Amino acid sequence: MDHYSTLGVERNATPEEIKQAFRKLAREHHPDRGGNEAKFKEINEAYSVLSDSDAKAQYDFQGARQHQFRSHTGNPFHQTHTFSFGDGFAQFHQNDMFEDVMRNFGFQFHQAQQPARNKDLNIRCRISLRDAYMGKSMAINYRLPSSEEENVDLNIPPGIDTGHVIKMEGRGDNSIRGIPRGDLTVSIEVDRDGRFFREELTLITETEIDIFDAMLGCTKSIENIDGNMVDVVIRAGAQHGQRFSCKGLGFRNVRYSNVRGDLHVIVKIKTPIVTDPDTKVLVERLAEKVRRSA
User: Fold this and answer.
1) How many Å is the Cα radius of gyration of the chain?
2) pTM of the model
3) How many CB atoms lie within 10 A of CB 233?
4) Cβ 6 vs Cβ 43: under 8 Å
5) For the chain, which residues make up each domain, given as ranges?
6) Of the chain's two ends, which shows fewer C-beta atoms within 10 Å, N or C?
7) Rounded distance between C-alpha atoms, residue 167 and residue 184, angstroms
8) Which fold has domain 115-192?
9) Alpha carbons 133 and 136: distance in angstroms, whole number
10) Options 3.20.20.70, 3.50.30.40, 1.10.3720.10, 2.60.260.20; which CATH number does 197-293 get?
């Protein structure tokens, strides 16, 4: 999977172009809006790499190395000869002069190099939307390639979202003794919530009001995702589906914790059913009066 193709940008795209492409695709494919969840994960993974200057540089470098390797081995005039001469050959092979002579005849020698460190590992971690909003410290358990059990404490920062990756140095593979361990990367997946969903840093929920509160305006007390009660001021003349904002109660920015989104409350107007004849007459009179004054 090519991260640039996933976001639909050129390899020389600016950070702002990458960000704009991500926002557009994230809105289009967000699962809470009926989008494809697998595609949404690919988009988040691509953005988490390309929006990080260090990770992007490493990704570009690895891509260039792979391209160089394909070009090199794809050359029909490049041949690598491998011969086995038994144990006696190993003694000659250590002689630089012998190697130089053999190379003049087109032979190439490859020495197995021990890796600088063990392999990196990647695991996935599912958390709730509430944990993503508030942040959380949790213990995770995973199995190493050496079959050993590993336990680590994972600190999840507030504002994290599906596709974000947390790196833990020195917590990866330890199969080869005598060299440093690899690193561990934890890919985050955030579960859906029945009452809340997010758009970037904006936290969104719904509340019901009746037609009279919609006409006259009211203050509605609702429970936020963190359990705290929030007073939402709904202005007179509210329309069904209209949003009312509570500033600074949305998600935090993972990198800049002082940057925070808002809480948006979508108003759903519940229309009462009038069956009492006297009440119906009153409503009809009220409706007539309101329509004349409109």
Assistant:
1) 30
2) 0.57
3) 12
4) yes
5) 115-192, 197-293
6) C
7) 6
8) HSP40/DNAj peptide-binding domain (2.60.260)
9) 9
10) 2.60.260.20
CB 205 within 8 A of CB 265: yes
Q: Where are the beta strands (DSSP E) in the chain?
A: 121-127, 136-143, 149-156, 165-168, 184-190, 197-199, 202-210, 218-223, 229-234, 243-246, 263-270
Cα distances (Å, whole numbers) of residue 67 to 10, 24, 63, 294? 17, 30, 6, 69
The Cα 89–Cα 86 span in angstroms is 6
Domain 115-192 and domain 197-293, same fold? Reply is yes
Tell me the pLDDT of the chain (294 aa) as tens digits: 789 899 899 988 898 888 888 888 888 887 777 778 888 888 888 888 888 877 787 787 776 445 444 434 444 333 333 333 333 333 333 444 444 544 554 555 454 555 688 999 999 999 999 999 999 999 999 999 988 999 999 999 999 999 999 999 999 999 888 899 999 999 999 999 999 999 999 999 999 999 999 999 999 999 999 999 999 999 999 999 999 999 999 999 988 888 999 999 999 999 888 888 888 888 888 888 888 876
The packing angle between helices 37-50 and 15-29, to 10°, is 170
Helix axes 53-73, 37-50, angle to 10 degrees: 100
Q: CA dihedral in degrees (245, 246, 247, 250; nearest 10)? A: -100
